[in-house]
Amino acid sequence: PMLTASSRASPRALALVGGVLPSVHARLLTLLASVPADEAFPDYAQLAFLARNHDHQQQQENLSSHALLTAEMAMAIHANETTARVKRTHREHYERRARDLRRFIEDGVSLRELSREHNVPPCVLARLLLEAIGLRKDDVKAVLRDVCTELPRRAAQLPHAPHPEALERLALDIQGAVDHGGHGSPGADVARRAVGLAHEALLYERLRMLGVAFETEDDLRLREEEKTPDAKLATPLLLRWRDSRGRTVERFVHWVDSKASFCDHDSFQSACITQFDTYARRFGPGLAVHWFGYVSGVVEHHAAAGEHDTRRAASSVLVSDDFP
Q1: In 5, 108, 220, 228, which residue has its Cα 20 to 30 A from 318's Cα atom?
Q2: DSSP label at 11?
Q3: Can you give the pTM of this predicted structure?
Q4: Which residues contact 70 (CB under 8 A, 6 or more apart)?
Q5: How far apart are CA 121 and CA 221, in angstroms?
Q6: DSSP codes joined into one string, 109-164
Q7: Are 290 and 259 in contact (CB under 8 A)?
Q8: pLDDT tens digit string along 84-105?
Q9: Hey, which residues does 240 pair with through a beta bridge?
């Protein structure tokens, strides 16, 4: 479908295809489930190819109306799934951390072996082991930033630190996990923030190109607004597009939020509850730009079948993977 954004400047048009087919998304999730937790950078191009070509006939029928799953989308989907899995199983791993530490010290089980056994990213497990020896969360963050210097220094202040040989082996394993990267590593956290800021800047550039006056998130916070979208439009923007039935639909949006992520059902429901519902009640309907794609039908599904707050928010927000 075509999305047209009209403002005081000349209208801009953007050819937007629908989101990723749910069947393709589901196939990718199945493929990702077999990726070991300690593999930071699987072949996302190959995974995307396998996911989108598992049903060639269906793909040909939907090729013109749905987004092509890319390696970048697959990476973003993997990040969503890993984050969800870590949150879902955190209590289980937290309660087992002392036992895992004993196995590491007494049985010689490596951090990587524990990571694969529990299906937990190495840096996430490293944080739990560091807490198990008695370090506070701030100490853990400092250790992950500089393992060789900070771990011996901070462990020396503990009343029951592991013996030097075990501590040295722990330092080597954690340094390897940090160097390898992946979910929970300092490098991944820095990269995620940088990508988010870069896409916010891209959104602001696109708005300026359209000649749309807007306030940034920082501007709104100066006015002591508590929950703020990335851009609050001074004048509503008219979006025009064709829906899945070929009908022309129009809606004014009052705000735009930049998301350097993929929008699946779980992330959309979470954003509706924590962000979009507040934005919509405070400012009116808006647009969420998920630069790394979205599952086709995600908004319609939650507008029709979600919880009350989710339905209300979903009826007031559009999701796109680009901005004109």
Answers
A1: 220
A2: -
A3: 0.87
A4: 48, 293
A5: 35
A6: --HHHHHHHHT--HHHHHHHHHHHTT--HHHHHHHHHSHHHHHHHHHTT-TTPPPH
A7: yes
A8: 999 999 999 999 999 999 999 9
A9: 4, 250
